[in-house]
Structures are given as C-alpha cells and as structure tokens.
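Question: I have long wanted to understand how a fold can be written as tokens. Here is the record:
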Amino acid sequence: MAEAIALIDYGAGNLHSVYNALKAAGAEHVAVTDDPKLVRGARRIVLPGVGSFRACYEGLTSIPGMVDALEERVLGDRKPFLGICVGMQLLADRGLEHGTTPGLGWIPGEVQLIERTDPNIRVPHMGWNDVGLTPHHGDHELLEEGEAYFLHSYHFVPEDGLDVAAMTDHGGGIVAAVARHNIVGVQFHPEKSQAFGIDLMRRFLEWKPV
C-alpha cells in the first residue's frame, strides 16, 4: 500500500467517480482512505470535493492528523497533488461561503461567490466550458486546453496571478486551475469531463514536477 495513490475520503462526495476516472486513466493502486499513515506513504495524492467550502473544510480537519499528513507529504516531500472542485478551493486562505472559513492556505487567496454581471449568466456555473491556459503556464506538463465540465457557485481568486494556471469565461474570467510547484487544483470535474478529464488524470499519473 506504500505505493498507492491516496484518494482522500473525508465525506465530500464524488469519490466513486474520481476513483473510476483514475482507474480508467491507468492507475493500478488507488487507495480511498482517511488514514493519515497511508497518506504519508502515498506517491500521489488526490483531494476531491463536492458541497460547501465550510462542510468540506470541517470534514477534512475532523480527521485526526490528516492535515498534518497532507502538509508533510505535499509541502514537505513535494509529492504530486491534485485538488478537484472544492478540493481545489480548499487550497486558498479562506472561503466566504456561509461566512468566513479558513482554508489550507497553500496558495494565498480566497473563494468568493461568482458575481452575476449579466442577467443571462446563471449561477451556479454549470455545464461544459472552455479551459484556456495562462501564458505563464502554457507549457504545463499536466494541464492542457480543451473543454471541461464545471459545477460551482463560488470561485477561487488567488492573490498572485502567477498561481493562475488556466481560465474559463462565465460572464467574465473565472479561474479554472491553479498551480504551484507540485500542487495543481482544477475547478472543473475531470471525472465528468469524458476524454479531456481522463487524459488529465493520465498525465497526473505520469507527472514528475520539479
């Protein structure tokens, strides 16, 4: 089990579909786990997330030792990390859904409600939309441009634009992905994005960040 990909189980939903996507991408050993000891031995880590920022943060932090294990493996050992939807949003300093809730603080910024600047724009942002890489991440080994499936009412606003790896347009620019060293978070759902999502998962399995 020491070589397993750790898919973190903290009651945030979409575990089954993310597991299936990883297996479809060629992963041999995926451990759906809430065990910090296993996380400390994992070679890659995936943090999914569906629901509110507050509920996901409370679910994650309620597991004794889990945040410490994640920080040890991801920030300390720099193992490849992929956050999906709210799992990506939790990288921020704070989320503003149902009041202010702290995040992991791995990528400075906050998660804000999508503003409706156009009455024709619907919130939540739901459905297929383009993903375009930012110029400074145009050659990222993991991310590529294409069309992905989104479902969210809140979006990540990083403090440093250099942490923004990809954008989408929903009545204005919305961050579709963030990246810093061995950490990548995507707002869209790879597990619901058909071939585009499976290809991303396949690249994640092979990704060797510097």
